Structures are given as structure tokens and as C-alpha cells.
Amino acid sequence: MSQTQMLKGILDGCLLAIINVKECYGYEMASRLNDYGFDYVSEGTIYPLLMRMQREELIISTRRKSTAGPKRKYYRLTDKGEKALQDFIYRWEQLDKSVNAIIHREIREKGE
After folding, report:
1. Does residue 33 contact residue 14 with C-beta atoms inside 8 Å?
2. In sequence order, which residues have a C-beta less than 8 Å from that of residue 103 and are 6 or more positions away?
3. Which of 41, 45, 55, 70 is deepest in the core (most CB within 10 A)?
């Protein structure tokens, strides 16, 4: 399974978490993802996700002046987006717990 396939869906939750901290624009989100080790995620990957999340009413955008060029589109969570983030966090924690339990148990058993 490729890294891209594994990331499908996870990026949505990560973007919601980044936007939840503060309103931001696409390039800023790509930089934040890069800071956390997602250096293979480009703006070209992020913008279609943002457009879909906007259609699903998880986020809304506002155009604002930029000190460096044209206006930027800043995104923020809606109430529905905040709920989606909480749901993602819950599902992620359950998945993380289950996967780690399997991995660590299998490694222990193999070592015995």
C-alpha cells in the first residue's frame, strides 16, 4: 500500500486540526504539514481537499489582503467542521490504539 493511499482521509483531519488552531491559507497549511514531516504533501494536494471540505460546509473562506501580492483565501472551521474534527480525533485515537496493540503484540510474540 502506498503512502498516498494510507494518507487518504487522514489529511482531512490534519487540515481541520491546523485550521482549528487559527485561520490560515493554503500555502501556510502546506508549510505546517511540512513542519510535521508531511514534506511530500503539496499545495496541489491541499486545494482540492479544501474545496471539497468547503462544499461539505466543514470550512468557510474569506479573501484578505496580503502584504506580498494578491488577496489570500483564509479558511476557518464551521460548527460542522468542529464536529468533524472531534469525530476524526476519536476515530484516529481508536485506530491508533488498535494498530499499535497489534504491532506490539505481534513483535513481542515473534521475539519469544
Report:
1. yes
2. none
3. 41
- Domains in the chain, number: 1
Question: Which residue has 471540505 as its cell numbers?
Answer: 53
55-92 burial code (b ≥16 CB/10 A, e <16)? eeebbebeeeeeeeeeebebbebeeebeebbeebeeee
Q: Do 15 and 43 touch, CB atoms closer than 8 A? A: no
Q: What is the pTM of this model?
A: 0.86
Where in the sequence is the domain holding 9, given as residue range(s)? 3-111
Over residues 33-70, the pLDDT tens digits come to 999 999 888 888 899 999 999 999 999 999 998 888 88
Give, for 28, the enclosing helix (H) or strand (E).
helix 26-35
CB neighbours of residue 11 within 10 Å: 17
CA nearest neighbour of 78 among 54, 49, 58, 55:
58
